[in-house]
Amino acid sequence: MSQRQVLQVFEQYQRARTQFVQAVAEFAARPQNIDTLQNAGVMTLLRPLLLDVIPNIQQTAALALGRLANYNDALAEAVVKGDIIPQLLCSLSEQNRFYKKAAAFVLRAVGKHSPQLARSVVQCGALEMLVICLEDFDPGVKEAASWALGYIARHNSELSQAVVDAGAIPLLVLCIQEPEIALKRIAASTLSDISKHSPELAQTVVDAGAIAHLAQLILNPDAKLKRQVLSALSQIAKHSVELAELVVEAEIFPVVLTCLKDSDEYVKKNGATLIREIVKHTPELSQLIVNAGGVAAVIDCIGSCRGTVRLPGIMMLGYVAAHSENLSMAVIVSKGIPPLCACLIEEQEDHIKAAAAWALGQIGRHTPEHACAVAVANVLPILLSIYMDTRSSEDLQIKTKRALKNILQKCTYLPALEQLLHDAPPNIIKHIVGQFSKVLPHDSKARRLFVTTGGLKKVQEIKAEPGSLLQEYINTINSCYPEEIVRYYSPGYSEILLERVENYHPVL
Fold it and tell me: For a tag on the chain, would you pick the N or C end, based on fewer CB atoms within 10 A?
C-alpha cells in the first residue's frame, strides 16, 4: 500500500469530521432540529472534536455546542455534566481568536440560564480564562469574554463578586474606552450587571474609575450604547446618597436630559430611570435636578411617550414631590399633574396606573394648596372610579385608595369634594365628610352652596355607626345649620310632613 493511499484515508477522515461539525453547527441554529440532535447523542460526538488537531474543527465544534447550550437549560446542563467545559478551557490561552470567541460563547450560553449553571461555569475555572481573554488584542475576543462575564454576574451578588475577584473590573473599564462600539456596549452592560446587586459591588466599579468614562459616553450617537451607559450609571446611583452624588459630580446634568428627547424609547426610559435613582435619595439631590430643568424635561417625556417608557418618569415626579412642599410645588408649577392624570386614563397596565396614582398622592398630600391643584385637574373622580372598578388589581386599588386619602385629608376645594360625595364608598366618604366638617363652620357661602347642591341632603342619608368618627363629622356639619333645615333634609321627613297635612284639621 503506497504512502498516498495511507494519507488519503486521513484526508477523508478529516473531511468527514469537518463536514460533520459544519452540518451540526448549521442544524443547531434551527430550533426544530434540537431534539433530533440531542436524541442522536450529539454532545458525546462533539466533545472529542474540541481537542481536534485541526483548529477549524475545534472552533466549529465549540460553536455548535454554544448554539445547543443556548437553546435551553437542559442542553446547557448536558454540557456541564458531559465535562465539556474543562475540555473547552484546557488550551484556551494558546488558541486563535476564532476559538476563543466560540469558547466564550459556550460559557455564556451555559451560564445565562440559571445561577446554578453559572456557578458550574465558575467552578470549572472559566472566570480566569475569560479575564485573560479581556486582555486579548482582538476586540471580538474581548467582546465575547465581556458578554460571558455579564451573563454570569447578572444572576446574583455572589457570582458578581466572583467576577470582581477574578480581576475583571479594571479590564472592563478599559474596554469601554476602546474605539469599537460593540465592545463598549457589552462592557457597559457587564458593569451594569455587576453594579446592580449591592452598594459594595457598585463601589468596586466606581473605584476603578468607571463613572467618568461612562459619563463621557452619554452623548455618543449610538442608541444601544447610550442605553447601556445610562443603565450602568442608574445601577450605581440607586444604592446610596454617596454613590448618587458621585454620579452627579461627573457632570451628567444637563447632558442627560437630552436623552429624554431621544428617538430610541429605551434611551428615554433609561435616562428617566437614572434621574429617578438620583432624586429618590434626598431633597438636596432632587432640588439639584429641579434647578437643572429635570422636572420639566421628565414631564415632557411622559407626555410624548406611552406604556412602560413612562414608568420611571412617573415615579421620578412622585419621589421629587414626596420630599417637601416646595419640591411638590415645583412639579405643580411645571404642569406635572395633567400628564399624570392622562396616564390614569390612557394606560392599560395596572402597574403604570398605580404609579401615577401614587405620584399624584405624593403631590397632593402636603397642604390644601397642593391638594387643590390636584383636585382642580379633576383627578379625584378618576382615582375613585379606578378604585371602585372590579377589574383593577389589588395593588392598584390600594394605591388609588391611599392617594385619595392623602389628597382628601388636605383638600378644602369643596366643588371637587361634592363631586365624590354621591359616589364614594363608606371607607372613602368619611374622609370627604371630614373635610366638609372642617370647612363649613368657617365659611357661610360654602354652607349655603352645600344645601343648594344637595350635599346636606346626602350627608343626612349616610348611615354612620353611633359614636364613630364619621358620626362626629356629620354632627359637626349638622351643627352648622338650624335644626329645622337639618330635619327638612333628613330621609323620611317629607312623609312626616304629608302625614301632618293629612292629620291637620283646619279651623273654619
Answer: C
Reported pTM: 0.86
d(CA 333, CA 320): 13
pLDDT digits (tens, 9 = 90+) for 30-54: 888 888 888 888 888 888 888 888 8
What whole-number distance in Å separates Cα of residue 303 and Cα of residue 290? Answer: 18
Rounded CA separation 105/102 (Å): 5
Q: For residue 311, how many C-alpha atoms fall within 13 Å in the half-sphere facing its CB? A: 12
Q: How many angstroms separate the CA atoms of 413 and 79, rounded? A: 68
As a whole number of angstroms, the distance between CA 83 and CA 76 comes to 11
Look up residue 223 and give its three cell numbers: 442608541
> CB 345: neighbour CB atoms within 10 A?
10
What's the sign of the alpha-carbon dihedral 389, 392, 393, 397? negative
**Of 176, 174, 197, 199, which Cα lies nearest the Cα of 186?**
176
Distance CA 165, CA 260 (A): 36
Tens of pLDDT along 271-323? Answer: 999 999 999 999 999 999 999 999 999 999 998 888 899 999 999 999 999 99
The C-alpha R_g of the chain, in whole angstroms, comes to 34
3-state secondary structure of 463: coil
Across the range 19-25, mean pLDDT stands at: 89
How many angstroms separate the Cα of 327 from the Cα of each of 73, 320, 354, 390, 412? Answer: 49, 6, 21, 35, 21
Q: What angle do CA 289, 294, 299 make, to 5 degrees?
A: 140
Alpha-carbon torsion (371, 377, 378, 384), positive or negative = negative
What's the farthest any 2 CA atoms get from each other in the chain? 149
- Pair 154, 198: CB distance under 8 Å: no
Contacts of 45 (CB under 8 A, 6+ apart): 20, 24
What pLDDT, in 10s, does the model give residues 323-381?
999 999 999 999 999 999 999 998 889 999 999 999 999 999 999 999 999 999 989 99
- Distance separating alpha carbons of residues 297 and 274, to the nearest angstrom: 13
Determine the Cα–Cα distance for residues 184 and 223; give it in Å rounded to an integer: 12
Name the residue with cell 297635612. 501
Residue partners of 405: CB distance under 8 A and separation at least 6: 361, 428, 431
Residue 480 three-state SS? coil
CA–CA distance, 130 with 147 (Å, rounded to integer)? 10
